[in-house]
Structures are given as structure tokens and as C-alpha cells.
Drug/metabolite transporter (DMT)-like permease
Amino acid sequence: MPVNSTPNRTRILLCFACVYLFWGSTYLAMRYGVEVLPPFVLGSVRFLLAGVLMLAASAALKRKMWPNRQELARLVVIGVLMLGCGNTSVIWAEQYLPTGLAALLVAVVPLYAALIEIVLPRGEGLRAKGWVGICIGFAGIVFLLWPGLREGLRGDSRQIVAAGVTLGGAMCWTGASVISRRSTFQISGFAAAGWEMLFGGVFNALMLVVTKGYHGAQWGLQAWASTLYLVAFGSILTYSAYVYLLDHVAVSKVATYAYVNPVIAVILGVILLKERFVAVEYVGMAAILVAVFLVTSSKMKSGAATVVDEDVAAGLEA
């Protein structure tokens, strides 16, 4: 997107603060939410509310918001893969994973994106710096999951299963990013996000009915606080700030959220949930962050926009 030559500096700093802090804190909010709500309940209510509110705002602002049939089909696929599968997998996994570990596993999305870009028709080759990042990143995953693997060998496989679900959800998110990058929409980006959230919420609602996953919901203060926080700050406010940044700041700078958000999630988990990492997990955390930095800062061979850029323009915490 074009970079404005005279952007409002204070507004840009506030938008970065929103993207860093609020998206980094969504892992904590999801953890609090899933303690009292089944995962599909939290996912469906969150995305249905956010989608309806974003579409209502688009209508009030008179932005183009009605997709044609072809656009609608693509928005359904993107919403289901990106939010219904990608984001909800994190919600489900946080029943068994520390929030910081979940955030660090989600941080591999740029690595997935870079690898997919290589094999796509008319895709982009990755420079040496990026390949180094890929290798470091997947080594970091092994370090992160090592304690869970050891527990699995002792008979408790919940953490390693949850980690696998998270990584699978991250792949769904990346696949949706590929489709989004190769699609053209005539409606506004804000409205497109609203439709995607709406369809992601509908998918969660359907899964809720099919799996009968509505039992055990405790709609008290904690449930409503976490849900409304995710709707207001995780989806609407921060997404608006993110769109503003993409319009006024270079994408390479906006991409820093990919390795700042996991750090925020880890810090909040340590302070508020008393989560602790063992030494090997700290090695994995450092490796993941270095890998994401190397991949996101490594320009593709042609210098053209790639699926990595498209993934940056989506934001998994949305």
C-alpha cells in the first residue's frame, strides 16, 4: 500500500501500541475465555459479534460492502479457513497449552508462508537469509515441543496434540492468506474482514451444534469480559489500527508485530498466569523469534509482493 508522506506521528505510535499490546494480549483473553466457555462457543460468539458490528460500521460509513457471488464464495472459504479453523484451533489448544507457547507456535505462520510461496506457480524464491530463518525456525519448534514430547512418552499426550492442532490451524491460516492474496475484491477491506469474521462465526456455530460443544458454558463476568475484549480490542479496534498502519507505514515495519506479539503473550502469561518455561523452551522461543525476523526481513528474489506480505496484512490475532 502507498505510504503517506505526512502521517500523524502520534496516531501511528498509538496504532503500533494497539497492534503490539492488544493482539499480543488476545492469547491471554482466549485463555480466560476458554476456562469458562467451550472453544466453539467462544469462537462463534466472538466472530459473529465482531462480524456484525464491522459490517454495520461499513454500512454506516457508506463503504462498499456487498460482494458479488464470486467474491462471496472466496470470503466464505477465507473466513472458514482463517478464523473458523485457524483462530479457533488456538482457542481449543489453549485448554492444554500455556498462552506463551501457543503464541510462539502461531509465530511460525510467516515460515509456512515463505515455503508455500516457493512452490506456487509464479511464486517467489527465497534468499539465503530466509532459508537460514526457515531452518532455525523449525529447529526452534522442536525445542519448544521437547518437554511435551517427553510428557507424551510418559502417557500424557495432551500438550503435544494441542501443539499439533495449533500448527495445523496455522497452516489453515496460511492457506487462506494464499487465497486472499490471489483474489481481487471490489468491496472495502474493512467490510471484507467483517464478512470473513461472520462466516468464521457461522462455521464455529455449526461445529458447536455438530459436536454438541455447547455444554458447560458459564456465562458470568469472566466469560463476557474475555469475549467482549476479543471483539472490541482483538478484532475491531486493533484491526482498524492495523489497516491505518498499512496505509501510512511501510509493510516491513508493520511486519514487526509477528515477533513482538509472542513476546507480549509470553510476558503476560508469566505475570498474570504464573506460566514458566524450562531452559530448552527458552532456546526454542529465541530461535522462533530470530527465524521470524530473518524470514520477514528477507526480501524475495524479485522484490515483488508475496504471500508473506499478504499474511502480514491479515494478522492471525484478528
Q: What stands out?
A: The chain is about 75% helix and 0% strand. The chain has one domain: 9-312. The chain has a mean pLDDT of 85.
